[in-house]
Amino acid sequence: MDERAIIGPMDWIHVGLLVLIGISGGVFGSMMGVGGGVLVIPLLTLGMKLPMKEAIACSLIAVAATACASAASYLKLRYANVRLALLLETTTAAGAIVGAFLAVAFHARLLAGLFAGILVYAGYSMFRNRKQEPGQPLSDGVPLHEGSPVSSLSASYHDAASGVPTRYDVRSLPLGLGASGFAGLLSGLLGIGGGVVQVPVMNLAMGVPIRAAVATSSFMIGITAIASSFVYYQKGYMDPLTAGPVFVGVLIGVQAGTRAMPRIRALYLKLFFAAVLLVVAVLMLLKAMGITR
Amino acid sequence: MNEDSRLSLMSGRILSAGLLTSLILFVVGFLWLAINPGNQVGGLTLAEVLQSLLKGEPRALVSLSLITLLITPFAAVLGAVIHFARTRERAWAGVSLGLLAVLVVSMLAGLL
């Protein structure tokens, strides 16, 4: 176990930089419904010269903090669909366990290459369908969250950007469950969060509006991160003095992200998410070519 | 307020409570460490956290704050199980209980 004395002036600068990294991860993750590892890990490894395993462990804390803080806000706003999250998470969590066990047998670079292709397709689909947003305005006189939903997965929320109460029905559930299992598998195999898969699947295939997809994904990624987090914690990679300031920064960043997200038009959220998918695809391609780990 | 709204509010409150507890533990532990230069830092295993807490070491609080954060989503799923059991939604109680079981298995598999 790492033992060192605390805390000199340089350490305070170090702590400040870690808080800033946490803030950027929190803003980004809460607005996109992803863990933010794609941003936090490179900043920690390249910017703070942290070893990869410590950076991943620290990123898992950032994911858990982003997920809890943003989901708490989105649940109050009724954007997050708890039932849908719980249902999809059953296959995601199972997929993550299988992925973790298969990780030793599979060629990670080949998988990263395949995953990059899927992300490019998802990014392109999101860009192509940027103006088609699922969900319908609730008719006047029908109170929000009351009435008779088509199924228990149907939900409604007040869209702050358009000012219109919106309702949606979830479709293609088997496809969603399969894709969630695949997201979990990738999470276990490649060490990525499931958000980059879950959000496009919910929005493009299952008829969930982008705002609700981001919020529901926020709730899910915290649950997905549990298993791997404990592995990294128990193996001693989670240095509290590194992870702690990142955690505090994330909480600050999430406050900004969750306030901004409801005000951004769905079109811009989709365009931003498509760009995120393409960036992650490039990172995965670099991994596939052996340029990065 | 319908059952879905109650479920959302309850889940949100569990997550907020977990976050707040974790933040308080971290801030107290971190400041305690900062004003006592003689203390040691570094991660503790789950077993070591308990021993360290009994000795009154500040680093135990910092480690405990991270553990609290990591188990908070788990508590939200547990809350959903209790909610569905109370509202007698058997299918949904089964789904959330199944998820809870998968999470317990994955945590145990990770710790072994």
Question: Can you characterise this structure?
Answer:
- The complex is a heterodimer of chains A (293) and B (112).
- With 293 residues, chain A is mostly helical.
- Chain A has one domain (9-288).
- Chain A has helices spanning 9-32, 37-47, 52-76, 82-102, 108-128, 173-190, 195-205, 210-234, 240-260, 266-288, and strands at 4-5, 136-137, 155-159, 164-168.
- In chain A, strands 2-4-3 form a 3-stranded antiparallel β-sheet, with no helix packed on it.
- In chain A, helix 3 (52-76) runs antiparallel to helix 8 (210-234).
- Chain A starts with a strand and ends in a 5-residue tail after the last helix.
- Residues 1-6 and 139-150 of chain A have low confidence and may be disordered.
- With 112 residues, chain B is mostly helical.
- Chain B has one domain (3-111).
- Chain B has 4 helices and 1 strand, in the order H-E-H-H-H.
- Chain B has helices at 3-35, 46-54, 58-86, 90-111, and one strand spanning 40-41.
- In chain B, helix 2 packs across helix 3 (58-86).
- The chains are: A mainly alpha (293), B mainly alpha (112).
- Chains A and B meet through strand 1, helix 3, helix 4, helix 8 and helix 9 of A and helix 1, strand 1, helix 3 and helix 4 of B.
Primary descriptors:
heterodimer; A: 293 residues; mainly alpha; 3-stranded antiparallel sheet; disordered N terminus; B: 112 residues; 4 helices; 2% strand
